[in-house]
Design a protein that fits this description.
The chain is an alpha+beta fold. It contains 15 helices and 22 strands.
């Protein structure tokens, strides 16, 4: 009993200490709801005060946070009471001044939404529920992709047997080592591309491609994935308005218009949407991305020497040694001789070149996973291009919680269990196995082959086991040997792959077919002669037959003392009632007492060595 009393006393003492300490700590209500950040660049602090506190994170306008509770803290300079919220966002927890947090009503069960949610993997659903609770009119569409996630990443990075040049995604040098492919070398700048780019690592590509990293309205950095990378780009006049365009172009050159009309660009963008089928929000965002917020590029100045009055707002064809000239040359060929012509024309090309073939989100434009056989058809090599543009949309569109927007989110056949993590600088120094194929064996007609194992050419580690290649089987081509008078026929079959051969389909020899063939016609001066010969092979037996004198040469129609094709022609002319000279005594070739087409036929057969006689 004494031990029990002692333990009990210790518990009481500990409880007393905690009770004395509690007044010194902010009291957080036991709540767990959601809130929306109502300002931009709002600071999350480690204490509920602006004095003597550290900044934990910076939150963007529209960011959805988890509210852990409220506390009473220091009133900020903006003077809006002493209420602070303890919130969690992006894995970080801290305090945000109450003026900048809008509480979101507790979620209610929505049967239609929950039914639609079943088309997404389980590890998508919690994030989508949180977004839906804040933006109940947003629609999420599950796009089934016929690739595993690893295969999709490999299409961008290349497999281990390919060189680094096969990598389709680049990062700027200014982004630091952690995003670069470990195969690049700081000491050897040969992998620097266009002066400021280099190849992205596989882990970097996976981070930006993993859909789960984009299931948030706000991310820790503006050029990280967010839900707007999946926003549908198709124009919907009922929900995409001039007011939305104004929000996007605010504080950019597009808000200033031109030609004395402050709304000129907004009118051009709406006209382009109507003619191209592309969302005006996407058109505006693309122009800002391509031309910058100031719009100072000579591609849209209209004053470039030799190309005055031509504009290229989408930077089509703007590459090579002279970016401006090449881009304006392209614009001139397209007839973009006004700002509106360039914006409308560029939007049409954008619509037909991407949206029209199914690449209808920033994600699909930069990662063409819908059509892996056309993986080369991607808008940008910049790894974070889709996120940079999506950040512009997010900033303009998150304030209106009643807006209807549609998002197409890729669902791969297989995803890693863990969400693809943001790379660290240590990842740059990790050895990357470069593969080479060994012990490959081609399949033959009768024996299986082997694709070969892929091992690292540096460390020898097995990267990927090979697979069996099934035997191909023979591919026989047939050559027919026809029978002759003395030899039988057969068909020879030869394999085009290995040369194996055999014969089949034997037939008997035909035997000789002897006929009496005229070799000399009888004339008025001498007798004629026939000899026995095989009609197939020409073999002569030596047997002959003499033809008696005729007093004329039958068939010598033209009277030149010989029978040939000239006589055949002359007989045809005579029967066709041409006015030609003939040897009338030679006309009755078949000896039936009349001259007609039968004689023409008999003469043709005779000249063709048929077994026929002429009289």
């Amino acid at each position: 009993m004494r031990r029990i009393h002692k333990a009990f006393a210790i518990i009481i003492a500990i409880s007393l200490v905690f009770s004395l300490c509690l007044p010194l700590m902010p009291r957080v209500a036991a709540a767990a709801s959601q809130g929306r950040i109502t300002g931009d660049s709002v600071r999350m602090r480690d204490k509920a005060t602006t004095s003597g506190s550290n900044i934990v994170a910076t939150l963007s306008l529209g960011a959805v946070v988890t509210i852990n509770g409220k506390v009473s803290g220091q009133e900020a300079v903006s003077g809006s009471g002493t209420t602070w919220y303890n919130v969690t966002s992006g894995g970080k927890t801290g305090y945000v001044y109450g003026k900048y947090v809008e509480e979101i009503a507790p979620p209610t069960y929505n049967e239609d939404f929950e039914s639609n949610l079943l088309s997404f993997p389980e590890d998508y659903r919690a994030a989508l529920r949180a977004i839906h609770n804040a933006y109940p009119n947003w629609v999420f569409i599950a796009d089934k992709i016929s690739l595993s996630f690893d295969d999709a990443v490999e299409l961008q990075y290349g497999d281990e047997t390919e060189t680094m040049g096969a990598t389709r995604k680049w990062v700027e040098l200014s982004y630091g080592l952690r995003w670069r492919d470990p195969r690049t070398d700081e000491e050897n700048p040969s992998h620097i591309l266009e002066g400021r780019w280099t190849y992205a690592s596989r882990k970097s590509i996976a981070f930006f491609m993993d859909p789960r990293n984009g299931l948030t309205v706000n991310n820790s950095q503006s050029d990280f994935p967010n839900i707007f990378t999946f926003l549908e780009h198709t124009y919907n006049a009922s929900v995409q308005t001039e007011a939305g365009v104004r929000s996007i172009v605010a504080n950019t050159f597009l808000a200033n218009g031109y030609g004395g009309d402050k709304d000129a660009y907004i009118k051009d963008i709406m006209a382009a949407a109507g003619e191209s089928g592309v969302s005006p929000y996407i058109i505006a965002t693309t122009i800002i991305t391509e031309q910058g917020t100031g719009g100072t590029s000579r591609l849209i100045s209209g004053t470039y020497s030799g190309y005055e009055g031509y504009y290229n707002f989408f930077n089509y064809g703007a590459y090579g040694d002279n970016v401006i000239k090449n881009g304006l040359e392209y614009a001139k060929k397209q007839g973009w001789n006004s700002r509106r012509a360039s914006i409308v024309g560029g939007a049409k090309k954008y619509g037909s070149g991407y949206i029209g073939i199914g690449q209808n989100t920033y994600y699909y434009m930069d990662f063409n996973v819908k059509y892996p056989d056309k993986i080369y058809h991607q808008y940008a090599t910049a790894l974070y291009d889709q996120c940079t543009k999506a950040a512009i949309l997010r900033k303009a569109l998150v304030s209106d919680t009643g807006m209807t927007l549609s998002f197409h989110i890729p669902v791969y056949t297989d995803l890693p269990y863990e969400v693809s993590a943001e790379p660290t600088e240590e990842d740059y120094y990790v050895h990357v196995c470069e593969g080479e194929t060994i012990n490959a064996q081609p399949a033959t007609c009768l024996e299986d082959g082997y694709s070969g194992d892929v091992i690292c050419k540096t460390c020898g580690e097995l990267i990927r086991e090979g697979s069996v290649i099934p035997a191909t089987g023979h591919n026989y081509n047939a050559a027919v040997k026809n029978p002759t008078c003395t030899q039988g026929g057969y068909t020879t079959y030869t394999c085009s792959r290995c040369g194996d051969t055999y014969s089949d389909n034997y037939t008997d020899a035909l035997g000789h077919n002897y006929i009496m063939r005229t070799v000399r016609l009888a004339t008025e001066a001498e007798s004629g002669l026939k000899e026995e010969v095989c009609s197939r092979c020409g073999l002569k037996t030596g047997k002959t037959q003499e033809l008696p004198y005729t007093g004329h040469i039958t068939g010598d129609i033209n009277g030149d003392d010989s029978v040939n094709n000239k006589d055949l022609t002359r007989l045809f002319q005579y029967l066709s009632e041409w006015e030609v000279e003939i040897n009338e005594a030679a006309l009755d070739v078949n000896g039936d007492g009349s001259v007609n087409n039968k004689d023409l036929t008999r003469l043709f057969q005779f000249l063709s060595d048929w077994d026929v006689e002429i009289f």
